[in-house]
């Protein structure tokens, strides 16, 4: 078997990347840098992976909505080293790299099917990343922050993690006793071995000071509270290598071929290597030439189960390197199925590809944002709830467009000059919707900036419901409704659709684009600023456009 260092050299060389991102000059604009977890591809993607991707994509697209001139660097990818991959490849009789090629493609395919606008899909087996990890190790070692010691503890192969005795419990099955992690439920075994350690304990005070000064750095707030509480206690130094006799599928420790760099220091370095660490040159894969490099990340989207790695271990490494910490961590909740944790052994893993194929990606994205966009509590995935929320947006948005552009209404309003939304009278019929439209864009923006995506979507739904109610109450198609009154109603409905179409672009990009095209809204007039009430007008509206090609009766 070839060594990993040789394998990494065989990988295509990613373009060499920039000088230090945090030292940008005024002529080079720092991109909005956002990351997902670097997924461990030991099994097919599940709905939790899709959730992380869609959440990050919403914020990436929203940044472009706020400032179209600002570059975006959106990184996702796969974490491919470690004992679990090594053992799984061996069990299949496959070369580990070929095994990873196969598994990684499943995740790359998910990003495509989910219409995720990532600018770089990275893999920890790429040469540029391997070189970055080696460089980072040498920097930490040169600062006296890595030393050889011994480690003993309860190790989970599936979690690639050591657990303290306080997080381990004994169980019995079929007369066989074993131990499991109380955090993940995975089996653990006692291990003792010589390895290298990172002086994590040296950074407790500085991390505590950082989070005390930046309460917004971790969301939801409860996670910030938990991290602050954990930092009040002593920090143990972190094991950062494994004996090569046990783990061969990984990056060798520099100058010590008997040890392999632990998968977590390897994986966490991805966020640096994806913007060119150690920053030697002037271009970054996934960014236009001449763009500032991007460090630190504006937002890192992670699952709550890996919060400690991203809120304690990685920031300590960054402080050791003299690099700024990530601006914000969004640690989202998990998806359950029938209120139970997803598990391959139980057979209740929700398949994102199946859901996308059945409902279309925009309805799935809408459901993930609508139900999973509060991030604080675990949420349940169910076919019934996906159907329910699909019906909701199809009825509220798709049917509203069809109603407002019906042949009968279009013929009637053609008899008068189309009024501007601002010219619609402030009488009892129209005033409530006008008020809602007047504050929609700002309210939506406030929610998204506060990581309250579900609340932002709720505001759009409420306005759409109000517009549908106005249609029902005023009946612009009815014979007794004058052409002028029908035109007033239609003007407000078109304004509702225009604003909602702009705001839904990060949530449902394809459907929002079709909607705005049908309203003849120019591509240059689809920013957040354009979503203000009556800021722009619709053009030559097309009738008969069907937004959702889904049979509601089937749902």
TrEMBL record:
Superkingdom field: Eukaryota
Cite the GO molecular-function annotations of the record. ATP binding; methionine-tRNA ligase activity
Q: State the signal peptide span.
A: none
Annotated GO CC locations: mitochondrion
Family annotation (Gene3D superfamilies): 2.170.220.10, HUPs, Isoleucyl-tRNA Synthetase, Domain 1
Q: Which reaction is this enzyme known to catalyze?
A: tRNA(Met) + L-methionine + ATP = L-methionyl-tRNA(Met) + AMP + diphosphate
Q: Which PROSITE patterns does this UniProt record tie to the protein?
A: AA_TRNA_LIGASE_I
Kindly give the Pfam families that the UniProt entry links to this protein: tRNA-synt_1g (PF09334)
Q: What is this protein called?
A: Probable methionine--tRNA ligase, mitochondrial
Q: Which organism is it from?
A: Lentinus tigrinus ALCF2SS1-6
